[in-house]
Every structure is written in C-alpha cells, then in structure tokens.
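Quick one: structure tokens for this chain, please?
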Amino acid sequence: MAEPIRILVVDDHPLFREGVVHCLAAEPDLAVVGQAASGEEALNLARELLPDVVLLDIAMPGWGGLVTAEKLATACPAIRVVMLTVTEDEDKLVAAFSAGARGYVLKGVSARELAGVVRGVDRGEVYVSPSLAAGILVALTHGRPADPLAELTDKEREILKLVGRGLTNREIGEQVHLSEKTIKHYITNILQKLQVRSRVEAALLAVRRP
C-alpha cells in the first residue's frame, strides 16, 4: 500500500481546524501530521515535518496566508500549498498562486471534495473552486480583442511564424539577426499579448487564423 499523503493544517480558528483534521483523518490515504494556528508556527512545523500538502488559511494574525505561502515555497519548495479560505476575491486568488499556492478552495467545500483536492494537488494538479474559476474565465475573456493576433507588431508576427515552423530561439535569432536573449523577450511579449501559456499554443493560434 502506498504511503499516505501527509498534511499540515494551518488555521487560527481551533474549531474549524479540528473539523478539517477530523474529516481528513477519516480518509485511509490521508494523514494529518500537524496543526498550526499561525504562519510562523506553520513554517517551523513544515521545516520539521516536511508534509506533502499544507492547507493554509489566508486571513490569519501575523504573517497571514499569502506571506506564509511565499515563505513555504522558498523554504520547502517540494511542499504543495492549498489555500483554504472564505475569501472569494479574485485578486487574493491571483496573489495566492503568485506566492506559490497550487490550490484555492473555499471553506464551503465538502469533506469529500477537500480530500479530492488534496489528492489532486499531491499528484501535481492545480485546483481553483469552480465558482471562482468561472469568474476568472469571464474576466480573462471580457474585452479580449476579437483577433488577438492583431495586437502583434510586424516583427512579432515574423517571429511567431518561425515559432510555428518549430525553430528554436537561437535558430529564430539567426534568421532575423537578433540575439537569442532578445528573441526570448519577444516570445514572452507574444505569449502575453495572445494570452496563452506556451509557444505551442501561440503557434496553434496563428495556424488557426482564417
């Protein structure tokens, strides 16, 4: 049998924290190895226990969840942090992922759903509560140009075409007489303008253009 997923639960409200611990402890493949009531305590315990997953509240005295998430990501990068919060704030969500979190779960979640999130994040998945995910998708698509490729400069279009042909940054640089570092900078701008995550997605978007 595989080793259980080791979890550290961090929340300054004892009743809620103990409820989470009780729910997770009922799952045979999950093991709560520690509890903390503050970010400072969480970091010390994380260093000592090296859990697989940390469930972390955002609104806590002292450091708070966002600062704690950053410190955990620096001190224990192998740990996966899941924010467990009542805060339905998209700015907080973005800040949490920027701080290194891998999940953002609202406290109204059921015990079964929370256990599923822990398992998924432990496998390397990313999780956002569906109600928040829907809002972010709307925000990302609202006001987006009908043709995002129209936002590109002529040079960016030329570079994107070469990306679509499978050329590396160095090969593209040789074609357009620019350094590899400059090409990397151009591609970063292209990805941001097209609102895609990888050069493959950017190339596909260019190919699909009517």
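The mean pLDDT is 87.
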